Amino acid sequence: MAVNLEYVFRETVSNLKRNVSMASAALLTVAVSLTLVGGALLVKRGVDRATVQWKGNVELSIFMKADASQPESDAIDRQLKSMPEVKNYRYVSKPEAFEEFKKIFANEPDVRDSLTVDQIPPSYRVVPRAAEQTKIIGQRFEDTAGVFRVSYAKEEVDALVSVTNFLQIMLWAIAIVLLSAASLLILNTIRMAIFARRREVAVMKLVGATNWFIRVPFMLEGLLQGLAGAALAFGVVWVGRDLIQNRIAGARNDIQLFKQFLVTSSDVTGTGILLLIVGVVVGTVGSALAVSRFLDV
Amino acid sequence: MIRLRDVNKTYKGNVVALRDVSLDIAKQEFVFIVGPTGSGKSTMIRLLIKEEKPDSGRIWVAGKDIGQLSSWKVPLLRRNIGCVFQDFKLLPSKTAYENVAFALEVIGRPPHVIKQQVPQVLDLVGLTKKRDHFPNEMSGGEQQRVSIARAFVNRPLILLADEPTGNLDPSTSVGIMRLLDRINRTGTTVVMSTHDSSIVDTMRRRVIELDRGVIVRDQARGVYGAFT
Prior knowledge:
The structure holds two protein chains of two kinds. By secondary structure, chain A is α+β, with helices and mostly antiparallel strands. In chain A, 73% of the residues lie in helices and 8% in strands. Chain A contains eleven helices and four strands, in the order ααβαβααβαβααααα. Chain A has a four-stranded antiparallel beta sheet. The two termini of chain A are 20 Å apart. Chain B is of the alpha/beta class. Chain B is globular and about 45 Å long. The relative contact order of chain B is 0.20. At the A-B interface, helix 8 and helix 9 of A face helix 2 and helix 3 of B.
């Protein structure tokens, strides 16, 4: 079938002009829902990447008593060296630990000044070969002489991951609801456009226009709405990611967890392309469905 | 050209539109379908363009069994059939020229064909001077001419006219009938439903009379009244 492109574009444009308010409502709904979808996807990317880092560095810290003797400390050092499960470890001396402590509480002078170097416990930071071995290694040292406490980073990481997982599920749920709303709106917009032109559609059918010929301008209209909405969502996600990333980079805290939460611009581009595809598919399929109800012979 | 065999059609609520209708219409024939309102005339026309499906029976149009026609081929069937209605069915936002051109545009005819065909057919129906007028700037007779031009511009094998003079005064009707007659002489089969007795009596063509969905008379060179 020779599709007359000029005809198709003329029809599409006049349809969109006729229904500016409905078309923009559909467009905005697509944009909002796809923004959420994109946000959820990017948060997932960041969390995935951070989790890999966290998991690779899951540390357990063996805190010595502040008054632990040198032989006690040496015994632990030897034991760590001999354990095959230990990937590497590092001794954090009193002055080093004190520096770290001062950094963490830099904004709270009261706390910062309440302790002296001597009161800070030195510690061993141990990186296990596999995250699963963390607990086993830790338990061996819990009752050793001179050990104050063994603490596991994993528990904190787990708590964080479960929070972000929950957030993601929420974002997904909201995005899905909004995306269905967007499809329904597009469906409705197209239906109204067809209703406004039912005389023309009737004449077209009467003189033997094929269903595809009648359908294409409406589908193009839906496609444009979906595409524009997705592009808007793309823009919002892009700007939003920049803002958040700058915030994290600019903040003068040393919280490693956030530093590791990295979303690269290629992540954003990939997600954006996905959004555009979803937008186009939702728009086109939605309007195709809307038209077919009017084309029943 | 048109053949119906044992065609039955009943609408919801047991309203019988056609019952056991069988008929043959040859190529180039001019046939009147007469009968009171509700006798099944319009249903027959809707069946021929496959806007409705019969409950039983078979229908051939231009040698094809249209019951066997897959739905995507229905548009091709309709390109062979021109349709004219009592209410013209013109698009109010388009001029006479555009209304006729639209019919060619939407079946994908190239612009140079449209530019050539439309003026020709407007000339045939005598509306060359009114080509840029909108439907609401034209009389009923002129609007019906536009609608005939639109039905004929694609040179269909068959022209179906469902009470084309139903909204027109007698003298205007005569003009429309002359036009349909001319189209018939070009080799197009014309089937026209009407309950305008004077037209049928003047034309003296084949008359098929329907009464409550049943063919009660099929007469060559007939008149409107049921007497012979």
